[in-house]
């Protein structure tokens, strides 16, 4: 199952709206088939593994990180494919929360006489597909806020200088986070000030760039910005208010940008919860936020940050440095977003800390 989870991880960021699944088929102590969900969500992991195994699948055991599907979509049900191939036993990490599946795949396997074992490395499998699970259950994607700061939580000096607070290794880690996300989200302020590319620029991984999403209620993003100019080659979406300038919006769409509408919230700004629901409705399951201090604060205030990926550089900028998040209305400790540390590891001379919201 560990091997199957490793295979499943290869699909993160490129299989949305589907989950990233891995499958390993073993017969007589030998691996005869292995597969993972392919780009775009199909073929599924089980189909890939069965194709590799061929006739060796008969009487074998299949280890699958997520319950095999039991519904007819664009591909036949994986549960039926396992049965037809003569698989004798299926070991499943976790059930699929999708109501079209949710136990039906396991029931179909058992009804056909296949031995089913459930719950092997369930926590690990659940963490891997936390985005898919959240989208199904809550109607919004998993949101990870990435921060690159000094030890005292500053993202720039008082003059705005921020390149580079963290080192080269930490920046490579940030690009891996991008590659494993469906979308990367920034606010219009960050897009205006930094004019970022928002792509994955690790060698050999340029095709793993996530969908670039800019929250821009008034369509302030210049048509000459990098994300707009390259929208024809890297998917670029802009979330804006319903009463946006239609002529301006057409200029974006002519450049290859997809325009999404989200309802206004407080102060006639975009309601970020509605924006996340819009992203989920368009297939996003995992969103990495690299916005500035205002967007970070707004998401934290709205309770929309599920994970933190915090890269800390061993330097201090002091109180006049720019904070990672501006004030977001905390009067008492009980009002603060609370996180649990999942992992801490070195990233060159910096530190990566991963947190999960409690």
Written overview of the protein:
The chain has 12 helices and 16 strands. By secondary structure, it is of the alpha/beta class. The strands form 3 sheets. Strands 11-10-9-8-12-6-13-16-15 form a 9-stranded mixed beta sheet, sandwiched between helices. The protein has a 5-stranded mixed beta sheet with strand order 2-1-3-4-5. Strands 7-14 form a two-stranded antiparallel ribbon.
Précis, in short:
Helices cover 28% and strands 24% of the residues. The protein has 358 residues and is of the alpha/beta class. A nine-stranded mixed β-sheet has the order 11-10-9-8-12-6-13-16-15, with helices on both faces. A five-stranded mixed β-sheet has the order 2-1-3-4-5.
Major β-sheet, in short? 9 strands, mixed
Low-confidence stretches: none
How does the overall form come out from the CA principal axes?
A: globular
SSE arrangement, N to C: HEEHEHEHEHHEEHEHEHEHEHEHEEEE
First-last Cα distance: 27 Å
- Helical content class: 25-40%
Q: Round the Cα radius of gyration to an integer and report it.
A: 22 Å
Number of H- or I-type helical stretches: 12
Overall pLDDT: 94
Helix/sheet category: alpha/beta
Widest sheet, order of strands: 11-10-9-8-12-6-13-16-15
Beta-strand percent range: 15-25%
In total, the number of strands is 16
């Amino acid at each position: 199952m560990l091997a199957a989870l490793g295979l499943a991880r290869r699909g993160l960021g490129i299989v949305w709206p589907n989950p990233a699944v891995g499958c390993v088929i073993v017969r007589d102590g030998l691996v005869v088939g292995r597969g993972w969900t392919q780009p775009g969500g199909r073929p599924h992991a089980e189909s890939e593994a069965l194709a590799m195994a061929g006739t060796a699948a008969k009487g074998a055991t299949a280890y699958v990180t997520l319950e095999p599907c039991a519904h007819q979509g664009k591909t036949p049900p994986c549960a039926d494919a396992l049965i037809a191939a003569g698989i004798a036993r299926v070991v499943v990490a976790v059930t699929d929360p999708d109501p079209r599946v949710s136990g039906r795949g396991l029931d179909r396997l058992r009804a056909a006489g296949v031995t089913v074992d459930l719950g092997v490395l369930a926590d690990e499998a659940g963490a891997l597909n936390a985005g898919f699970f959240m989208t199904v259950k809550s109607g919004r994607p998993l949101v990870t806020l990435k921060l690159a700061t000094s030890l005292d939580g500053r993202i720039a000096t008082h003059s705005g200088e921020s390149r580079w607070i963290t080192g080269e290794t930490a920046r490579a880690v940030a690009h891996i986070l991008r590659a494993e996300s469906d979308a990367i989200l920034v606010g219009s302020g960050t897009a205006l000030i930094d004019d970022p590319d928002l792509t994955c620029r690790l060698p050999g991984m340029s095709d793993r760039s996530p969908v670039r999403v800019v929250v821009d209620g008034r369509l302030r993003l210049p048509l000459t910005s990098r994300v707009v100019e390259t929208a024809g080659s890297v998917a670029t979406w802009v979330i804006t208010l319903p009463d946006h300038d239609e002529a301006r919006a057409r200029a974006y769409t002519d450049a290859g940008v997809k325009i999404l509408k989200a309802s206004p919230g407080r102060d006639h700004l975009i309601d970020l919860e509605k924006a996340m629901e819009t992203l989920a409705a368009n297939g996003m399951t995992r969103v990495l936020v690299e916005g500035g201090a205002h967007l970070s604060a707004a998401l934290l205030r709205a309770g929309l940050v599920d994970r933190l990926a915090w890269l800390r550089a061993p330097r201090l900028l002091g109180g006049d440095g720019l904070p990672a998040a501006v004030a977001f209305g905390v009067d008492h400790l009980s009002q603060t977003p609370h996180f649990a540390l999942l992992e801490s590891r070195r990233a060159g001379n910096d530190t990566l800390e991963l947190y999960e919201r409690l």
